Amino acid sequence: MLSPRLLVILRAYWKHERPAAPWLFAGHTGNHLHPQVARLACRRAVTAAKLSKKVTPHVLRHSFATHLLEAGVELRIIQVLLGHDSIRSTTRYAQVSAGVVAKTRSPFERLKKTG
Predict the structure, then answer these.
(1) pTM, whole model, 2 decimals?
(2) CA–CA separation, 32 and 24 (whole Å)
(3) What is the pLDDT of residue 37?
(4) Which domain holds residue 77?
């Protein structure tokens, strides 16, 4: 899923850096970046933001799924976006906040009043 706003930023980066194909973000050897690079970048961003919670790329993946779910995106769509074969994996990722649960109206409240 690529945000149109992010695409504008990535295009500007590409025009400025002109990275060698096929990678938009290549390592020193010209190959794809090692996963450790993403973990290090995440750790540095957490430190710079002075966050007290533990944040990892995996936590960001969970947050992505949770935000989509809370925005009303169907669980099946989230499953496809995350690349999961099983809906069970997706349900572990997408956790609903207590605030969203508290705001949920009972179906009883939608019934027509009689009398």
Answers:
(1) 0.71
(2) 9
(3) 92
(4) 54-115
